[in-house]
Amino acid sequence: MLDEIGLEAALRWYTEGLEERAGLDVQLEISDNFERLSREMEITIFRVVRECLTNVHRHSGSKSAEVRLERELGTLCLQVRDAGRGIAPDRLDTLRARGAGIGLQGVRERVRHFAGEVRIDSEVGSGTTISVTLPYRPVPHPAVERLSFPELRVSGIIEGMMLGKRGFGQPLATVLAFALVVNAQTGTERSASIIAALRAKDFEGAVQLSREALAKSPSDPQLWTLQGIGLSADKHNQEAMAAFHHALRISPDYLPALEGAAQIAYESGDKGAETLLRHIVRLQPGEQTSHAMLGALASKEGNCPQAVRDFEQSGSLLESQPSALKQYGVCLIAVKQSGKAISVFQRLVESHPEDTRVRRELAALELKAGKPQDALTTLKPLLEASAQDTGAVQLAAAAYEANGETPAAVKLLRDAIVEDPKNVALYVDFANIAFSHQSFQTGIEMINAGINLQPNAAPLYLARGVLYVQLADFDRAEADFEKAEELDPHQSISAAAQGMAVEEQNQNDPDRALAVVKSKLAKRPADAFLLYLQAAILAQKAPAAGSPEFLQAMRSAKKAVALQNTLVSAHDVLAKLYLQSGQTDAAIRECQEALRHDPKDQTALYHLIVGLRKVDRKTEIPDLLKRLAAARQDATKVEAEQNRYKLVVDSGAHSN
Fold first, then answer.
1. Which of 184, 194, 426, 465 is the most buried (most CB within 10 A)?
2. Residue extents of the structural domains in the chain
3. Are 291 and 651 in contact (CB under 8 A)?
4. Tens digits of per-residue pLDDT, 528-574?
């Protein structure tokens, strides 16, 4: 775009459009007779202005901004000023030293390439001013008037607009500004009249004019593209897409049509968006916004290796896109690049210091990476806040414990429990610390307090049962495990069955989940896992022993273990059904078989304890209770680690 219309026209288009899109009133002042610059420098100035104004809109709280661009002797001076809340002195020092946060890193990188300088001045309550100086390098005026509209590459369809509701796009009508800043006389007469109609926001008239023009020139991709722009501006996206695709059939590499179609496809969630965006980056390998959009699409599909590659080619653009930056960080975790992930989340915290969730996510990453002191530093503002943040308290307690500061962890959890005495998770965390330091009775006493307030919380009975085992109080331990099973019978259903239910979004509708499994079994009747799922879902419905559903569950479980004897979860379901039907010896055998394949299978251990008690083989029970307690404690640690990871990953998934 800049090659054809020049920096001044592009900046005026952008700042005028910003008021319509974001409500930011921008006063643009450019010195008279401003000469054309090198292509690279014009691109740099445009992007610096864009990033600065994006920061003003997102972070300053200001409704207005001033942009001044002037030439002084051999220097170009650019100044972007807002009237917002300003930056605190300590944070300002950090930004000046590191250039990180609120997009400033990208600004510095661009300016440094031309041996320029960036200065930040700010006072709390008085706004912020960013000043950029660059060496002046004029170039001869390009003959803009000799260009015809078909040569105008409207790459700004995607790149120019970063404040739309989807993060990267915006209503396609705004692309008109790129064409409209070009004198209508530079194109054909037909194109000029269509552009004039679009400029006047007479979209219906523009579409009609394009149809009349296409009747005479049906093979003109520019006319088809203009028609697509008009249709999209009038919210006829399906017809607009057809027009863009018609242009592409005529000229497959016609960039304006590619970008128009890509934006509509991206915003509508059409899978064709990726193909169109890949085409664009083949034509323009360095096109940052297309790479960022591709990264977002790959992240949404769970293809993190590809997402990371695309995000990394989007350059500093991500700094102004918090949701995409978070997706990038989450994918870095998935591909085991925790160092880079931490850096990404640090930038998010710096640019959004008030976002408590992002701060917790960074702390979780730092803790996972073995940096508990960094996690505590990150969490400090949340811990010092007047309102208690339970998630931050749990993370901080884990960080103190990992840092060898157990008294601090204990005090933090005690104080949090006093503040929120019905929070089950806080009691469980306290019990875990008590277990780690062999303070079993202390842990039991705290859990007792929790049970007094929450008598139906299964996790509390499980935690206390584990502690009772350590004191060799096996009768009480077994009673607690039995109570936990009674309160939450779904614990005995394997994670795989629950995962299937979640996958099908039928976790609260077992009949529908069962129908899905049966439909799959009709095609694959010898699939051991599907047979197990059928048995598990039927068992979850708690049918009476001997009922048709119970017998069907029994048959499915038996067939599953016959087909795949290593399927531990199927043995667990079958053992539960045997116990329910009074076939205790058969249940014991299934539990023993499950434990042969997985010695830490908690479900099998619990069912085996129940079975042995029924046949009066109680001497074996204490050792099994110890094994169950150890398995439960190991699982608790793994769950805590997974929950910290899930805290970040789930957030990234929902940020689209």
1. 194
2. 2-141, 150-284, 352-490, 496-616
3. no
4. 888 888 888 888 878 898 899 999 999 999 999 998 888 888 899 99
